[in-house]
Amino acid sequence: MNRVKRSSRQRLKAAGLIILMAAVVFALSGCSRTDGNDNAGGAESPAMPSPVAQSPSPVPQQTAVPQTADPTAAAAATESPALAAFLDPAKLQPVFGFADETGSHILVTSQEEGSGEQMESLNTAIGNGGQVLAVKFGKRQAGSENSNGRELANNFANLAGFVYTVEGGAAKPDETYYLADSSSFPPAALVDLQPADQAAPQLAAGDPVRKSIAAVKHREIQSAWKLADLALNRELYLVQFTRQDKDMLFSIVLNEDGKLSFMDYPAVIENDEYSVWRVDDGGEMRPEMFSLLFAAQSADGLLLGLNWWGAEGVNSFFLLQQGNAFKELEIQYGRYTSPI
């Protein structure tokens, strides 16, 4: 009996020791927690924020800019390349003029009396191979009875029209210019061009470009001349094809690294073989008959402004590239300059 009692007391002591050890272990375990979450329900302790809340926000990646002495260049290195400006042909108006003998004024003769508000908004003159001039509307000129009817610099003061003052630089005397509002004709859309030497010989029969043009048209070439070199390795040519019975043809041809775009001018000889395309042209095209006002880039393709000189005057017109062909726009101008 005493032995049983002693065993019970021993068991009680052992159980108490176990409970005490468990309590110590639990206490030590609680002190070693690092997640700050002591609650059975998983609620965060306000005294110990979770590691996620303590983590700093991620820092966005930055592109390193190379060191340069030019801060403008450094800024440009972080930006996307600027898009090229494009000309919208739909915004162009048929406003042309020509310069006086000093190149300080330009006269527009082809507009109506009631178009003054529109004319006053024009601030840019473009011509002479892409020359850009700032202009300002000056006055409407009444003209005089002393006019000989020729739209030439030596008759400038006697013609009725709108007079513009050239601000900065000078126009080429007697040269035709296209007038526009810079908001509708961004100068950044212009393409650099270099007129060809008109004294240079025509393309030789074995020239690769000449052979390519003949192959596309399935027609022999009588003569071929380069009119201009344009930016991005583009070239503009004047090509006259051999006569086929009464059928005549010449073309303005753009060569873009082998891609050819044509503006064709066919004609049929009737009674006068000396006036085929224009009065007294002799049925022959020559490079000195043509010059460029400008070349500009549109969303569809190249826009060319050209002058075509004839025996009685000069016609100015626009050609818009569309695929492998050009379309002649309705924006045109004619100056009567026939010798007296």
Q: Would you mind describing this structure in some detail?
A:
The protein is of the alpha+beta class and 340 residues long. The chain has helices at residues 2-31, 51-54, 71-77, 116-120, 208-217, and strands at residues 96-99, 105-108, 124-127, 131-141, 161-167, 176-180, 193-195, 221-230, 234-241, 247-256, 259-268, 290-297, 302-309, 313-322, 325-336. The strands form three sheets. The protein has a six-stranded antiparallel beta barrel. Strands 7-8-9-10-11 form a five-stranded antiparallel sheet. It has a four-stranded antiparallel sheet with strand order 12-13-14-15, with no helix packed on it. It is globular, with a radius of gyration of 41 Å. The protein starts with a helix and ends with a strand.
Outline of the structure:
By secondary structure, this protein is of the alpha+beta class. Helices cover 16% and strands 34% of the residues. A 6-stranded antiparallel β-barrel has the order 1-2-5-4-3-6. Strands 7-8-9-10-11 form a 5-stranded antiparallel beta sheet. Strands 12-13-14-15 form a 4-stranded antiparallel beta sheet, with no helix packed on it.
